[in-house]
Design a protein that fits this description.
This protein is α/β, with parallel strands linked by helices. The protein contains 24 helices and 16 strands. The strands form 4 sheets. A 5-stranded mixed β-sheet has the order 2-5-4-3-6, covered by helices on one side. Strands 8-9-10-7-11 form a 5-stranded parallel β-sheet, sandwiched between helices. Helix 1 runs antiparallel to helix 4 and helix 20 packs across helix 22. The longest helix is centred in the first third of the chain and has 31 residues. Bound molecules: adenosine-5'-diphosphate and zinc ion. Zinc ion binds next to helix 18. The site of zinc ion has 7 residues, from helix 18.
């Protein structure tokens, strides 16, 4: 496995409405099943029953007390029945095969012999069973199930709304706790780091909330709604809180996702209540997290949730339109999928301002690390800049977590201060999961060492490869070993030669196994997946295939969620085949190069494996020492791989 820090966020899926639907269907079927028998039986007059017995149309009956049930051998049409109550009015004719009737109170002493002469089989049940527990359960069981389900749903909803176990009846009472009003620990811009552009855009809002007169005197109105757009954990909630904290106004918040599972009508009522409270405490801030889960374009909603989502959304729109501009209530909303939002939400006077919150760059990450280590004792040798450099792709929330894990590790190790090593190990744990004590045979360990060394050697000898800063064969999470490479600086633009170098390096694990053992294992699954994705992107997104040229073949799904979120556009069969062929070519060429380079450096490969088997983990310095290789030359020293006639500048 070869690794770079970074993560793919996942969207939780809401299945409650599907579950509700399935439960209702099951209930319906149960009712049909249990109640079906007696429901289908049509009451007929006693005399009709006797007539039918006399004419040989009845072969068997069940009797229970004074009630008799049975089947007519040939169905009887009801209006033809003399004195039938169903005849009254203009009831349509009904064909009856299962009937029920009641023996009159004065009893019919001749009934038994009458039935016997007409060969009717008699079976009987005791009277009590009609009202027995099982009867009750069969009758009411499904209803109880429905009620139980609703109670469960209420409790869940109430709990999610912050009722903290308030349960069904707490739903209305828990209002006060629903919104985070705790201003005891006020958040300020001091607590927000690394997202300066977004912060600067909000400074103005703070000023407005502090001195509304300054603006209103000039006839200016504040923006009503601001959309904070950015990946999860980048600090959107934190920013909203900081705005409230800086302006010293109350902060009311709710999360869009809690409405998706809510009972119809509650969402809209909540919104009304939320805005009412905010108005009463104006100037104030309302923060709606995950607004995409309610603000999703109408018609795009999930089954069952649609009407509730729409009602909630409409209520938000109504409330925002109701602002007179004098109220000093500013609504901040957060999302990572702005493109899915209903256009109505983005119209002027609603969320017409957009503030993008980006993942922090290296300097930003260092600043965030500083914020979250403010109250922690740090060792003098600890270099936060170095930690920031090894963590591209991590969000503010990830970095906060990293600081905490490092502190936990330091405590576990009995140290008084947090050291660099604690951060490195904490990072490894966060990215790959905790160390996994598994017993490996010597042969397996050696094979893993060759796999990782294959990645590492290529990271040293392929020009343009990212420096290798750590190799380990300590199993962690899903990985049996890991090679870490990190770019010397955050990269925003990837030269083709760099991408090729990366693919060659990714295939180095398998290539080493092949060169040394001549056989393959499953250990390269992850590498193959990553290499293929990268090669596919080169062909379909970055115009790096000569055969396909600069045509975009995969569209951006969600620019805020990183590079992985793409989908192949609809293309012709020939184009699809060509894409596959070009991807194969990149992978196959890289694979051959990887094997070739490892054969050439077999000596260094063996040396690295020997060192890994005895020491398990090697850092950058040790890797260079053991292999005697210099770091890979940087790309700027290289000729451009694109043919000169194609280079524009
Ligand atoms: P989001 O709302 O974008 O998902 P949050 O604001 O909930 O992210 O971030 C969670 C936590 O991560 C914050 O409470 C804060 O402690 C930390 N954090 C995130 N971004 C930053 C940042 N830019 N500066 C400092 N801390 C941050
Ligand atoms: Zn690998």
């Amino acid at each position: 496995m070869s690794r770079r820090p970074g993560g793919t966020p996942q969207q939780p899926q809401r299945k409650t409405w599907t579950i509700l639907f399935i439960v209702l269907v099951i209930n319906y079927l149960l009712m049909q099943w249990f109640l079906g028998g007696s429901n289908n039986a049509v009451p007929v007059p006693y005399t009709v029953f006797k007539q039918q017995v006399a004419s040989g149309n009845v072969h068997a009956i069940h009797s229970q007390g004074t009630s008799i049930q049975g089947q007519f051998t040939n169905p009887v049409t009801l209006p033809a029945l003399e004195g039938s109550p169903q005849q009254a009015g203009s009831a349509p004719p009904r064909s009856v095969s299962t009937f029920t009737t009641v023996v009159p109170d004065f009893a019919d002493p001749g009934l038994e012999s009458f039935l016997a002469t007409h060969n009717v089989q008699i079976s009987a049940r005791p009277i009590e069973s009609g009202s027995s527990l099982s009867g009750l359960l069969f009758g009411f069981g499904p209803v109880l199930l429905i009620i139980a389900f609703y109670v469960w749903l209420y409790r869940r909803a109430a709990k999610q709304a912050g009722g903290m176990g308030a349960g069904m009846f707490g739903l209305g009472k828990s209002k006060a706790r629903r919104y985070d009003q705790s201003q005891e620990k006020k958040v300020s811009f001091e607590d927000v780091a690394g997202i300066d552009e977004a912060e600067n855009e909000l400074v103005e809002i703070v000023d407005f909330l502090k001195n509304p007169k300054k603006y209103t005197a000039l006839g200016a109105t504040a923006p009503k709604g601001i959309l904070l757009v950015g990946a999860p954990g980048t600090g959107k909630t934190l920013l909203a809180k900081a705005v409230a904290g800086e302006a010293d106004v109350p902060f009311f918040s709710m999360s869009g996702s809690e409405f998706v599972e809510m009972i119809v009508g509650v969402g809209a009522a909540r919104v009304r209540d939320l805005f009412k409270q905010a108005r009463e405490h104006a100037p104030s801030i309302i923060f709606i997290d995950e607004i995409d889960s309610i603000g999703r374009a109408r018609g795009q909603a999930v089954m069952g949730g649609a009407s509730e989502q729409e009602q909630t959304l409409n209520q938000i729109l109504t409330e925002m339109d109701g602002f007179s501009g004098k109220e000093d209530v500013i609504v901040l909303a957060a999302t990572n999928q702005p493109e899915t939002l209903d256009k109505a939400l983005l119209r002027a006077g609603r969320f017409d301002r957009r503030v993008v919150v980006n993942l922090p760059d290296k300097t930003g990450r260092e600043a965030i690390l500083q914020v979250h280590t403010r109250e922690k004792p740090l060792a003098a040798e600890l270099d936060l800049m170095e930690v920031a450099a090894t963590t591209p792709g991590l969000s503010g929330a990830d970095l906060k977590n990293l600081c905490n894990e490092a502190a936990l590790l330091a405590a576990k190790r009995g140290q008084a201060e947090i050291r660099q090593k604690d951060f490195i190990d904490a990072l490894e744990k966060i990215i790959l999961g905790p160390e996994r004590p598994i017993i490996l045979s010597n042969a397996d360990r050696e094979r893993i060492a060759y796999h990782e060394s294959g990645h590492a050697i290529l990271g040293l000898v392929v020009p343009g490869a990212d420096p290798v800063n750590r190799v380990t064969i300590v199993p962690r999470g899903q990985a049996l070993g890991v090679t870490y490479q990190r770019p010397p600086a955050d990269r925003y633009n990837y030269p083709e030669a760099y991408l090729r170098a990366r693919i060659i390096g990714m295939l180095g694990g398998r290539a080493a196994e092949e060169v040394v053992y001549g056989t393959k294992t499953t250990g390269a699954e992850n590498d193959i997946e990553q290499a293929t994705e990268l090669a596919r992107s080169m062909v379909t997104r970055w115009g790096m295939s000569e055969k396909l040229g600069m045509v975009q073949l995969a569209s951006r799904q969600n620019p805020y969620l990183g590079v992985g979120q793409r989908q192949l556009d609809a293309v012709s069969e020939q184009t699809a085949a060509l894409i596959d062929a070009e991807v194969h070519k990149i992978i196959n060429d890289s694979h051959e190069q990887a094997k070739q380079l490892l054969r050439e450096h077999r000596h260094q490969l063996d040396a690295l494996v020997a060192a890994l088997l005895s020491r398990e983990t090697l850092d950058e310095h040790e890797i260079l020492e053991v292999t005697g290789l210099p770091p890979a030359p940087a790309l700027k020293d290289l000729p451009n791989p694109v043919k000169p006639e194609n280079t524009g500048a």
